[in-house]
Amino acid sequence: MSTLLVKNAHVLVTMDARRREIADGGLFVRDGFIEQVGPTADLPPAADEVLDLRGHIVLPGLVNTHHHLYQTLTRVVPAAQNADLFHWLVTLYPIWARLTPEAIRISTLTGLAELALSGCTTASDHLYVFPKGCRLDDQIEAAREIGVRFHASRGSMSLGESQGGLPPDRVVEDEDFILKDSQRLIEQYHDPKPGAMLRLVLAPCSPFSVTPELMRQSSKLARTYGVHQHTHLAETLDEEDFCLQKFGHRPVAYMETLDWIGDDVWFAHSVHVNEAEIGLYARVGCGVAHCPSSNMRLASGIAPVQKYRAAGVKVGLGVDGSASNDGSHLLAEARQAMLLARLATTLTPGSSPHNREGGLMTAREALEIATLGGAAVLGRDDIGSLAPGKCADFFAINLNRLDYAGALHDPVAAALLCTPQKTDYTVINGRSVVREGQVTTVELGRVIEQHNQIARKMVNGE
Ligand SMILES: [Zn+2]
Q1: Average pLDDT over residues 337-361
Q2: How many Å apart are CA 379 and CA 70, to the nearest integer?
């Protein structure tokens, strides 16, 4: 049994059912779960570990619902800097074919460290390239080492260029092997219990890189074990054209033909959807991982986030892979989502500043998407808010800093509207993964050095 007391926070944002923001707040944690939340004066006076967060804002841990951590090795590749999705992919696939198990491990540590320093406490990753003996196990080991709550996706690609797909044949895998490996990973690692630090997800990559048969079989397997399913969908108009030509359906209708819809399914992006498709997501419970920076970087389009929310669709945030962002700052991504949703209101035909559908997204709405929204998308009710019984996942930022000067009349909005900051404390499962602004669980200097060496070899083909 171990206990943790957080006390004296300037304000503690709960995101609970009443959306309480508690002045001089704190919480009491036992064995990774929150036991009490409230004003410091109402909490037990002592614990095994005490964090005095005077002058800090405390927020529920953010949830990242879409990433490709290995892409931290291929940020800012010159030939892919100014390309749309398909050209970007075709440029990068041959570089990604040089991944090694060590590259997977180091890039996972790098990306998860960035995420933890930006307030993220639960991350889902979509790994779908497995050359040179790479396995999902390499990533899972690294996630355990750094201590971030993790949803690992067994991604896959099976439809190579010679079969009409987009990726080169040498980065696709045999379908029987993909399914066998998926089953092995679920049996070995998936933890369905509340408070789980590790869950498995099955995630064929996209309509243009896997066959309909692999989609069907993956879904069958996922549902046998009760794990979630994830894929990229309706990201670009090129993808829509591909689906219409190859399958005779728009992307969402194609998913329907495969029975790839339901409350155990979430899609990355879903930018290009019509009203009926939004209605379908709401009805069957499909979630969306909204990745605003990536959508802007690749000029993919603007996802109809406010329409999704108005219809009752679950929406979370994703920083997306670092080759299309090129960072893993989840608090910054929440800010991007807020700003892009505001810009989108000006692009609706006939809209005027006085007549905007749904109004402007507020800082607190963006925070809700980044916390409760992400938790719902991943199918979890044990994270996303600070309340008794929930996981002890939160982060704290010292308010006494240049970037917040003049904004302290509303520190909660400042966290979103001012320049996105790195955290001073990030606590996951009751354990400080970031303390006084430093990652405690891995030696980052060494990781960065190795990361740069591996990236250089991969990009230059050494
Ligand atoms: Zn992606």
Answers
A1: 78
A2: 24
Instruction: Give the amino acid at 70.
Output: Y
User: How remote is the CA of residue 126 from the centroid of ligand 1, in Å?
Assistant: 7
User: What average pLDDT does this structure show over 400-405?
Assistant: 98
State the pLDDT at residue 24. 98
Q: Which two tokens stand for residue 432?
A: 């400080």
Place of tokens 């909490």: 43
Give the torsion sign (CA, 77, 79, 81, 84): negative
Q: How many whole angstroms separate alpha carbon 15 and alpha carbon 367?
A: 9
Q: Provide the β-strand partners of residue 150.
A: 123, 198
* Cα 66 to ligand 1 centre (Å): 6
> Per-residue pLDDT tens for 285-328?
999 999 999 999 999 999 999 999 999 999 999 999 999 999 99
Instruction: Please state, in angstroms and rounded to a whole number, the distance separating the CA atoms of residues 396 and 382.
Output: 20
Q: How far is the CA of 458 from the centre of ligand 1 (A)?
A: 20
Neighbours of ion ligand 1 (CB under 5 A): 268, 320
Ligand 1 centre distance from Cα of residue 49 (Å):
39
Amino acid 347: pLDDT: 84
Q: How far is CA 190 from CA 63, 72, 152, 316, in A?
A: 19, 25, 9, 22
Please, which pLDDT band fits residue 359 given cuts at 50, 70 and 90? confident
Query: Mean pLDDT across the chain, nearest whole number?
Result: 96
Q: By the 8 A CB rule, do 38 and 25 touch?
A: yes
Neighbours of 296 (CB within 10 A): 17
Kindly give the distance from the C-alpha atom of residue 292 to the centroid of ligand 1, in angstroms, as a whole number. Answer: 12
Q: What is the CA(357)–ligand 1 centre distance, in A?
A: 29
Over residues 413-425, mean pLDDT? 98
HSE (side-chain half, CA atoms, 13 Å) at 72: 28
Packed helices 175-189 and 212-225: angle between N→C axes, nearest 10 degrees: 20
Find the 387 Cα to ligand 1 centroid distance in Å.
Answer: 32
Q: From 386, 459, 419, select the one nearest 53 (Cα to Cα).
A: 386
The two tokens of residue 327 are: 């960072």
Cβ contact 48:32 at 8 Å? no
- Bridge-based pairing of strands 21-30 and 33-39 is antiparallel
**Averaged pLDDT, 406-416:** 98
* C-alpha 25 – ligand 1 centre gap (Å): 37
Helix axes 85-96, 444-460, angle to 10 degrees: 100
Burial of 412 (0-12, 13-18, 19+ CB in 10 A): middle
What DSSP character marks residue 371? I
pTM, rounded to two decimals: 0.97
What's the token pair of residue 396? 């704290």
